[in-house]
Design a protein that fits this description.
Family: Belongs to the DNA photolyase class-1 family. Belongs to the DNA photolyase family.
Helix content: 40-55%
Strand content: 5-15%
Number of strands: 5
Cofactor: (6R)-5,10-methylene-5,6,7,8-tetrahydrofolate; FAD
Structural class: mainly alpha
InterPro entries: Crypto/Photolyase_FAD-like_sf, Crypto/Photolyase_N_sf, Cryptochr/Photolyase_FAD-bd, Cryptochrome/DNA_photolyase_1, DNA_photolyase_1_CS_C, DNA_photolyase_N, Rossmann-like_a/b/a_fold
CATH superfamily of the largest domain: DNA Cyclobutane Dipyrimidine Photolyase, subunit A, domain 3
Number of helices: 20
EC number: 4.1.99.3
GO molecular function, one term: deoxyribodipyrimidine photo-lyase activity
CATH topology of the largest domain: DNA Cyclobutane Dipyrimidine Photolyase, subunit A, domain 3
Number of domains: 3
Oligomer: single chain
CATH class of the largest domain: Mainly Alpha
CATH architecture of the largest domain: Orthogonal Bundle
Length: about 475
């Protein structure tokens, strides 16, 4: 088939501002929009259950968009993407394969291997940047090395923001090669066998159109309050765009362009704060590319000797299930289990409680987030957990141990967030909503609440565990850092 191009979709599940799509269309008389489901290639970080749920619905949405433009999505699966691509090339006679680059270490190695193999057999391969403002390696120190401090990285990056002409969605797509078929979406078995996903379906609309509805709602209604609102879990003050960005249903360039279209000054608040959050996403990918060991290994080598607590699984399970007896922590973990998402402020508090008050390894928390977050992203997840644990680049000082009582009283002052996710505490007055174990017995009785029966007592004392964490840090802090 002359002049057929393969567009290999990965985590760029959109038609707007898609440079791989634009490249594939150039001179092509036939287009093969292809998605290959090959989770084993991502081992040991194959997508978790919440990510698979999102992927199912995002692929369905992408197929509807393609069908509306005269094409459709071809689905395939296999343990080897190269073999699948070779079969599609043989079936269609396609001369070119286009994709937007991924930046996780396993993906980079896989794509390099595929490109070499396809080129050696006569195919042309084109990788483009469709997922980041800056690819790893574009923003470097004066010594041409990687940044390890976000503020310095972002100062250089923000001064080099790319131009913002956005690639438009095509008005029509070339036809598929004749008689080309693919798998039914159900064959990929991305949906849960036991229906636990009602809360996810109620909270999210995966796909490019859902991404843009969320973006417009945020930019037009909530951006103005972003500086204060982004730290309030009791308010809908954040953009909630992280899963849409992870799956490439909207690009950071599109968000940058949307700000400029609205005449918003990028150098002033609140746009500067929102852009800084996009910058943290960029920085996370920058770090993962230069320090590929960090999903499992602390960047600060001193933490290899950190005296973590032994746990038979009881405390970890209590944390995972939102049964620690610490309301803000429990509310966050329950929100995560129900919706596949947790407010960023609460993520930090929950992670601090796990790694410092319970003194359990940060890798355990990272794995739980990986399986339960709809926005599970290896770079962001790694950066976030190492930052809170104190062992990563630009990490919070170890002595910065979040006090969940004070955090709750400051950012959920009326207890609305806790009452939503821990309804057994709903009748407590605001004074004790974040510390029910301190409430007088008569107040607990009036709230129809018995600690230990209706809601657990704290599984650890906050003051004592904080002191123990600082003592553990003292035991390793004088060793050489990485």
């Amino acid at each position: 088939m002359a002049d057929a191009s393969i567009l290999w979709f990965r985590r760029d599940l959109r038609l707007g501002d898609n440079p791989a799509l634009a490249g594939a269309l150039a001179g092509a008389t036939h287009l093969v929009p292809l998605y290959i489901h090959s989770p084993t290639e991502d081992h040991p970080w194959s997508p978790g259950a919440a990510s698979r749920w999102w992927l199912h619905h995002s692929l369905a949405a992408l197929d509807r968009r393609l069908t509306g433009l005269g094409s459709r999505l071809i689905l395939a699966q296999g343990e080897d993407s190269l073999q699948v691509l070779q079969k599609v090339i043989a079936a269609t006679g396609a001369r070119r394969v286009h994709w937007n680059r991924l930046h996780e270490p396993t993906s980079v190695a896989r794509d390099r291997h595929i490109e070499q193999a396809l080129r050696s057999s006569g195919s042309e391969c084109f990788g483009t940047n469709g997922n980041l403002l800056f690819e790893p390696g574009e923003i470097l120190t004066a010594q041409k090395g990687p940044y390890r401090v976000f503020s310095a990285y972002w100062r250089r990056a923000i001064a080099q923001l790319p131009p913002t002409p956005i690639i438009p969605i095509p008005s029509q797509l070339p036809p598929l090669p004749p008689e080309l078929t693919g798998l039914d979406l159900s064959t990929l078995r991305l949906q849960p066998r036991i229906r636990w996903d009602t809360g996810l379906a109620d909270a999210w609309t995966p796909g490019e159109e859902g991404a843009w509805r969320a973006a417009r709602d945020f930019l037009d209604r909530r951006l103005v309050q972003y500086v204060e609102g982004r730290d309030r879990p009791d308010h809908r003050g954040t953009s909630r765009l992280s899963p849409h960005l992870h799956f490439g249903e909207i690009s950071p360039r599109q968000l940058l362009g949307a700000l400029l279209e609205r005449g918003i000054d990028l150098d002033r608040e609140p746009a500067a704060s929102f852009l800084r959050e996009l910058g943290w996403r960029e920085f996370a990918h920058h770090l993962l590319a230069f320090f590929p060991q960090t999903p499992e290994t602390p960047l600060d080598r001193r933490f290899a000797a950190f005296p973590w607590c032994h746990d038979d699984g009881t405390r970890l399970h209590a944390w995972q299930q939102g049964r620690t007896g610490i309301p803000l922590v429990d509310a966050g973990l329950r929100e995560l289990w129900t919706t596949g998402w947790m407010h960023n402020r609460v993520r930090m508090v929950a992670a601090s409680f796990l790694t410092k008050n319970l003194r359990l390894p940060w890798q355990l928390g990272a794995r739980w987030f990986w399986d339960t977050l709809v926005d599970a992203d290896l770079a962001n997840n790694t950066l976030g957990w190492q930052w809170v644990a104190g062992c990563g680049a630009d990490a919070a000082p170890f002595f910065r141990i979040f006090n969940p009582i004070r955090q709750g009283e400051r950012f959920d002052p009326s207890g609305d967030y806790v009452r939503r996710w821990c309804p057994e505490l709903a009748r407590l007055p605001d004074t004790y909503i974040h510390r029910p174990w301190m409430a007088p017995r008569e107040l607990l009785s009036q709230a129809d609440l018995e600690l230990g029966r209706d809601y657990p007592r704290p599984i650890v004392d906050l003051t004592t565990s904080r002191a123990a964490a600082l003592a553990a840090w003292s035991a390793i802090k004088d060793a050489g850092a990485g």
